[in-house]
TrEMBL record:
It is an enzyme of class 5 (isomerase). Gene3D superfamilies: Alpha-D-Glucose-1,6-Bisphosphate, subunit A, domain 3, Alpha-D-phosphohexomutase, C-terminal domain. SUPFAM superfamilies: Phosphoglucomutase, C-terminal domain, Phosphoglucomutase, first 3 domains. Residues 7-131, 154-249, 254-359 form the Alpha-D-phosphohexomutase alpha/beta/alpha domain. InterPro entries: A-D-PHexomutase_a/b/a-I, A-D-PHexomutase_a/b/a-I/II/III, A-D-PHexomutase_a/b/a-II, A-D-PHexomutase_a/b/a-III, A-D-PHexomutase_C, A-D-PHexomutase_C_sf, A-D-PHexomutase_CS, Alpha-D-phosphohexomutase_SF. Belongs to the phosphohexose mutase family. It comes from the Archaea. The keyword Phosphoprotein applies. GO terms for molecular function: magnesium ion binding; phosphomannomutase activity. Residues 370-434 form the Alpha-D-phosphohexomutase C-terminal domain. GO terms for biological process: carbohydrate metabolic process. This is Phosphomannomutase.
Length: 449
């Protein structure tokens, strides 16, 4: 199979099985990753039907590169990160396509220090080795593969961090993904009554695609209301994102969920959140005694910054929630149990916690097609115009412009030939005005660049 450069993305390698990637590519990933990692390697996979054969080929590549491999079996992506630390591995590979359809698969790579292999941090090197066939000769001493009983290790790791929560009633939509293999056992051990939805991890994702959009989790919202549950949580396919539903059936964006979860942290300190996040998160953080800091969108950036600063928590509007207590990992199962702990401890409904948070009118993330070769120049042009118009701007990730009426964020997509815009206004009547301004600036910049 000819290797296409487009499968090497910002944070992982991903494509359609037997179209973009197959076992020969998996073997090459093992050989290439084997050249940059030291020591033994952990390998996990999600529930996709192509996963088992891809893992075998990947392990063949790693062992031919001279590495011993610990095969963790089917697990969540955050569990795989934990497995790397638990077994003191030099790195790891998770075979997953996260929230993509069932015919997709991919490879997320990380090093022993927790660093994700991503754009600017090793991905280009992996890509070039594979495309150019620059894999070197197999090691003189081949490694061995050991299958380990990891699921029980991970379950104990999570359970040990929480006290029993008898009387708490919640629902979980597993998106037919990896979380269904461990979360029910965890809840049982903690005394939580769990209503399970879409818990058939056969790799077909029959309930809905493994992306917990508001449309996909409509059944979860209905169940929480109808059965008068304390809250609901939806996991994506590999359980590195948790989407919460309160007792009134309202879906929480990641920044609002983070604002609530700050109450569960015993230690004050820095919190890091992406530039898409609402001003309400900053205001709640300051009110609760935390030091808020904005940062770039994307797991590789947020995870790195949380670890670098020793932050107590990080979060993205996309529902990745990072915990300093977990070496900065974005473990959705841990996030769900932190939320359960808050409700059990305070005896206050999630809806009341949510209602304490200021609410500002916002747009969804608006997407505009723009060629890769133009998008950064377009952003630069827009930044200049906004400054000329008197807005206070920062260029941390694209351009974010602050005015009396609210803010506009316009940034280039990390993974697609697109420009994305988000807007938050202080008043509803200002939202459309700011949107019209942003769209006009995008249109003018694309015409002149």
């Amino acid at each position: 199979m000819k290797v296409s450069p487009h499968i090497f993305r910002a944070y992982d390698i991903r494509g359609v099985y037997r179209v973009d990637l197959d076992e020969s590519l998996a073997y090459s990933v093992g050989r290439a990753f084997g050249k940059i990692v030291t020591g033994k390697v952990v390998v996990g996979r999600d529930v996709r039907r192509s996963g088992e054969s891809l893992v075998k080929a990947l392990c063949d590549g790693l062992t031919d590169a001279g590495h011993d491999v610990l095969n963790l079996g089917v697990c969540t992506t955050p569990a795989c990160y934990f497995g790397g630390r638990f077994y003191r591995a030099g790195g790891g590979v998770m075979v997953t396509a996260s929230h993509n359809p069932p015919d997709w698969n991919g490879f997320k790579m990380f090093l022993g220090d927790g660093e994700t292999v991503s754009q600017g941090a090793g991905m280009e090197k992996i890509r070039d080795m594979i495309i150019n066939g620059d894999l070197g000769s197999p090691a003189k001493e081949k490694g061995v593969v050991e299958k380990v009983d990891f699921q029980s290790v991970y379950i104990q790791h999570i359970v040990s961090r929480f006290s029993p929560m008898y009387g708490l009633r919640m629902a979980a939509d597993f998106s037919d993904g990896s979380a269904s293999l461990c979360f029910p056992q965890i809840c049982e051990k903690l005394g939580i009554t769990l209503r399970q939805l879409n818990n058939n991890p056969d790799g077909y994702f029959r309930g809905h695609m493994p992306e917990p959009t508001e449309e996909n989790i409509s059944e979860l919202k209905q169940v929480v209301i109808a059965e008068k549950l304390d809250f609901g949580v939806a996991f994506d396919g590999d359980a590195d994102r948790a989407v919460f539903v309160d007792d009134m059936g309202r879906v929480l964006q990641g920044d609002i969920a983070m604002a609530v979860l700050l109450k569960t942290l015993d230690k004050k300190g820095i919190i890091v959140y992406d530039v898409n996040s609402s001003t309400a998160l900053k205001e709640m953080a300051e009110k609760l005694g935390f030091t808020p800091m904005e940062w770039k969108v994307g797991r590789a950036f947020l995870h790195r910054k949380v670890r670098e600063l020793g932050a107590v928590m990080g979060g993205e509007k996309s529902n990745h929630l990072y915990f300093g207590e977990l070496e900065g990992d974005d473990d959705a199962i841990y996030a769900a149990l932190k939320m359960a702990t808050l409700l059990h401890r305070t005896k206050t409904s999630l809806s009341k916690h949510v209602d304490e948070i200021p609410k500002y009118p916002t747009t969804p993330i608006l997407v505009y097609d723009c060629p890769d070769e133009k998008k950064f120049a377009v952003i630069e042009k827009i930044s200049e115009r906004l400054s000329q118009m008197g807005f206070k701007t920062n260029n941390l990730d694209g351009v974010k412009a602050y005015g009396e009426e609210g803010w506009i964020l316009i940034r280039a997509s990390n993974t697609m030939p697109q420009i994305k815009m988000s807007i938050e206004a202080k008043k509803a009547e200002s939202l459309n005005m700011l949107r019209q301004l942003g769209e006009r600036l995008i249109r003018e910049a694309m015409e002149t660049v």
